[in-house]
Prior knowledge:
Distance between the termini: 33 Å
Strand content: 35-45%
Number of helices: 0
Mean pLDDT: 83
Low-confidence stretches: 87-97
Order of helices and strands: EEEEE
Largest sheet: 5 strands, antiparallel
Radius of gyration: 14 Å
Helix content: under 10%
Shape: globular
Amino acid sequence: MDYKWLKADGTSPYRACRWPIGKWVEAAGPLVLCGKGIHACHESQIVHHISECLWEFEGEGDTLEADDKFCCRRRRPHRRHGHARTSGPSRSGGQRP
Length: 97
């Protein structure tokens, strides 16, 4: 299983696309890391891309690997794991609500 962080509303933190739960999304054309393809991360890489909700994703097809992520041809959201921690000190040093 692969992982992807999404916003609480199911959209990508980098693009305004909403992921259809359980449905395949496919990238056309040549894969390019950070450019074209459906990106995700392995369990050991999830700390590099923290957003609001962690999801398990299934992937298929050609794959390109990087140190902190990878992309593949097809992917679908499988199961939500929960929300990232939103309390505690913020980056500016103050407390979050």
